[in-house]
């Protein structure tokens, strides 16, 4: 049996808590769907994950229906499902949350958001968000010259904001000024004092080379570094340690410079940023109070600042609902909006200054939910599975010690209460000692390979039995965490962590992962996910849990000739854009799915975008078919002349080589 052979039921499964009848509700609890899925994702009566793109009161789409339709049209996994209506829903809920907070607090201005396209620059995503945001004058944020070129033509409404962050050169500042001269609400954000000189040159017409416009004011904003820092994975991107923005002393210096400048400048916006995926709403409130004081000072200095931009940071619940673990948040969308609005109102009323327009650059909270990565598990490896088939070796003190471990392993009962710490600590020590002794004995030639392999298999079974005992009495305690990582099955999945889950690999960010079908059956196994790449980092071995410590995922036994699909959720923010080309796996295929009640399954697929084929991904690193085929032809001809292969075989080999250029870069599970 190969290491990645499909599993059989011959081995003892890893038990989950027993249920008389496993239900979809049990699956919802097991995978914490009610926490991260909000009102969008749930498990339906068929045991499939389904999505309500427009919220709990609207129809649902069964993910397996979508997967089956795409597969019937020849689309191979892995692929992304984009539920475009979810983008509309998230834009609406964000704007309505701020509208309600403004109404409830008596705030005397409005909210006007922008979408930072660095979160997901894909044109279809940006256009859907802008369409959803039209009633709210929802705008865009860019952070580079290329992003500016992409976003500027989308300012169809003059009330829309285009906020431009990041460092700027003269060419970028000229382009920003051009947008202003077209009557658009384009606001470059000064990130350093030196950028003021570029702005003044543009305002005076020198950089543009055109004096005809006269003293038309050049609008701008300034990013300030606050003492208040964020909390969470990206906390260091904000606060006084940020690489962007001006200190308070530099703000004072800038104000003095502008006041004495003869350039036509319009200080229109104050900007700050705490970081992405903020975990604590209290930090959000404190930052708004601090920024509000800076805004009030600027107003009293005579500057007509109209906007305060709080930056990004509005988080989503990736975790199982515990705000204290990595990736968790302690607030709702409504609480976030109320904290911001209430803080600005408090300061502005105390300082007797006008309430500014509140701007946020919420990207993750808008885009994350709409995208689901579907991968297929194509094999499973259980540690010790092959050793289980081996006969018991000849007597040896180590073999007898292993037998003694199996017969004396503590089995808690009503008369012998379960003492987790004592029993676990003793068992861990005994198993580790036996493993070390067996390794040393084999290395020194005292036991043969067969005996060493048999012992190892028995020890894996002992570890799994110990874990099962612990689960029967609660969760996995810290002293068994290493055993849980070691004992988990490896499920080989047809995808690349580096390409599609870069934040998991680079930052340890958790994403909700679960099977999307067979959820009316209790999962029998526990496993980690390993990808197609050649690196040991290409795996997912850390999963969402209330305590943040879970090193194996509950999964089902693979069945021969039956596909097994997993969904990776909340993938719409950053993962599409930031993935690299490790092993040249390339961009995965994607499908744009829309809710439609007139259809039998409540959806239609508007567009299918194929993933990159081998020719496309090779071209990105400067390998081209003509040159490669020419080189391969030369190699084949040489081997034909040497008599190593026949001429006909050479022709066939070269034809096969040519045909692969059009193939998908991932494993074709269905190919013969």
Quick structural summary:
With 672 residues, the chain is of the alpha/beta class.
What does this structure look like?
This protein is globular. With about 675 residues, it is an alpha/beta fold. Strand 8 (about 185-190), helix 8 (about 195-205) and strand 9 (about 220-225) form a beta-alpha-beta unit. The strands form three sheets. Strands 4, 13, 14, 15, 16, 17, 18, 19, 20 and 21 form a ten-stranded mixed beta sheet that branches. Helix 4 (about 85-105) runs parallel beside helix 5 and helix 14 packs parallel to helix 16. The protein has 23 helices and 21 strands. Among the domains are: about 85-360, TIM Barrel (Alpha-Beta Barrel); about 615-660.
């Amino acid at each position: 049996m190969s290491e990645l052979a499909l599993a059989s039921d011959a081995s003892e499964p890893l038990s989950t808590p027993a249920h008389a009848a496993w239900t979809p509700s049990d699956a919802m609890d097991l995978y914490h769907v009610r926490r991260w899925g909000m009102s969008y994702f749930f498990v339906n009566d068929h045991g499939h994950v389904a999505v309500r793109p427009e919220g709990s009161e609207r129809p649902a789409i069964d993910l397996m229906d979508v997967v089956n339709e795409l597969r019937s049209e020849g689309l191979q996994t892995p692929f992304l499902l984009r539920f475009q209506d979810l983008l509309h829903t998230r834009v609406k809920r964000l704007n309505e949350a701020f509208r309600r907070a403004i109404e409830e607090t008596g705030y005397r201005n409005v909210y006007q958001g922008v979408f930072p396209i660095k979160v997901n620059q894909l044109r279809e995503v940006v256009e859907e968000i802008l369409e959803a945001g039209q009633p709210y004058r929802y705008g865009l944020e860019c952070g580079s010259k290329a992003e500016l070129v992409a976003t500027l033509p989308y300012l169809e409404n003059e009330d829309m904001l285009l906020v431009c962050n990041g460092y700027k050169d003269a060419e970028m500042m000229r382009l920003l000024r051009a947008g202003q001269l077209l009557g658009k609400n384009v606001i470059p954000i000064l990130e350093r004092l030196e950028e003021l000189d570029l702005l003044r040159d543009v305002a005076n017409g020198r950089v543009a080379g055109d004096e005809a416009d006269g003293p038309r004011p050049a609008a701008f904003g300034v990013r300030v570094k606050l003492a208040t820092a964020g909390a969470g994975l990206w906390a260091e991107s904000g606060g006084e340690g940020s690489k962007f923005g001006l200190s308070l002393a530099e703000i004072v210096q800038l104000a003095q410079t502008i006041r004495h400048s003869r350039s036509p400048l319009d200080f229109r916006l104050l900007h700050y940023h705490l970081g992405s995926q903020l975990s604590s709403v209290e930090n959000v409130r404190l930052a708004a109070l601090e920024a509000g004081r800076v805004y009030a000072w600027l107003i009293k200095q005579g500057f007509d600042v109209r906007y305060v931009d709080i930056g990004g940071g509005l988080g989503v619940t990736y975790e199982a609902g515990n705000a204290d673990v990595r990736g968790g948040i302690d607030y709702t969308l409504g609480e976030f909006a109320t904290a911001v609005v209430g803080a600005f109102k408090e300061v502005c009323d105390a300082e007797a200054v006008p309430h500014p327009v509140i701007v946020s650059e919420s990207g993750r909270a808008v885009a994350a939910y709409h995208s689901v990565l579907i991968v297929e598990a194509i094999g499973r490896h259980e540690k010790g599975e092959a050793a289980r088939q081996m006969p018991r070796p000849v007597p040896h003190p180590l073999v007898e010690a292993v037998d003694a471990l199996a017969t004396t392993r503590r089995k808690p009962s009503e008369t012998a209460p379960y003492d987790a710490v004592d029993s676990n600590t003793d068992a861990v020590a005994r198993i580790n000692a036996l493993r070390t002794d067996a390794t040393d004995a084999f290395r020194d030639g005292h036991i043969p390979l067969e005996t060493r392999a048999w012992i190892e298999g028995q020890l894996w079974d002992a570890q799994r039995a110990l874990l099962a005992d612990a689960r029967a009495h609660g969760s996995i305690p810290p002293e068994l965490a290493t055993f849980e990582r070691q004992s988990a099955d490896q499920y080989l999945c047809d995808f690349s962590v580096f390409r599609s889950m870069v934040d998991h690999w680079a930052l340890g960010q958790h994403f909700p992962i679960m099977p999307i079908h067979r959820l009316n059956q209790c999962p029998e196994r526990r496993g980690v996910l390993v990808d197609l790449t050649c690196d040991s980092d290409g795996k997912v071995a850390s999963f969402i849990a209330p305590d943040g410590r879970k090193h194996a995922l509950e999964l089902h036994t693979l069945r021969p000739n039956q596909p097994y699909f997993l969904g990776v959720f909340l993938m719409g923010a950053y993962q599409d854009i930031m993935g690299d080309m490790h092993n040249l796996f390339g961009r995965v295929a994607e499908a744009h799915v829309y809710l439609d009640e007139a259809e039998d399954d409540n959806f239609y697929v508007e567009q299918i975008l194929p993933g990159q084929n081998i020719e496309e991904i090779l071209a990105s690193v400067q390998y081209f078919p003509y040159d490669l085929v020419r080189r391969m032809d030369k190699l084949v001809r040489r081997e034909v002349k040497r008599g190593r292969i026949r001429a006909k075989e050479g022709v066939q080999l070269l034809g096969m080589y040519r045909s692969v250029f059009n193939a998908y870069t991932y494993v074709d599970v269905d190919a013969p």
